[in-house]
Predict the structure.
Amino acid sequence: MTIDDRSSAQADGIENAIPLVLDAVDSITADGLQSGFTLSDTGCADGGTSLAMVRSAIERVRQSEPGLPVSVIYTDQPRNDFNALVRNIHGPGPFTTYLDEFENVFPMFSGTSFYREILPPGTLHLGFSATAMRWLSAKPGEFSTASTWSGQPGRNWTNFARMRTRTGAQPNLSCAIARDYWCDMRVDP
């Protein structure tokens, strides 16, 4: 059983976010795509739940920029099951992969926490994360001290947003948080 066999709620959330992701893709200007389009799925688990969203984003990019190189960065914490992730993206796995539909697409895998920088500055066009924000970066204190736990999610969110805005390729870096809420981070250059 894969992670995604137990993730129907996450899959539903991602499916509901696809129109928002496509709006974000549409907002990226062609002059910002000179060397290609880079999409990240942060907190990707085994990648199965986001395949339809990634496929839709690639298809939308290709409608306006046929043949444009597309990099898809899958990232999760180092103890993630990257073998299952690679199988699901490259096949053979239980899902149909977009790699059979599109050429010039380059999936890459990173065992880097989304609370750290994942890509070089100025390289990410669209960052996506689905319901992974519930994971804390660190244990802030003992369970008996609720006040030390209450601030950790806010510190994590601030750090997550700072790391994504550093890697944004344009002043328009959009980040979807499916099921929890949608966030559109726009950063001035």
The helical segments are 8-26, 51-64, 82-90, 146-150, 152-167.
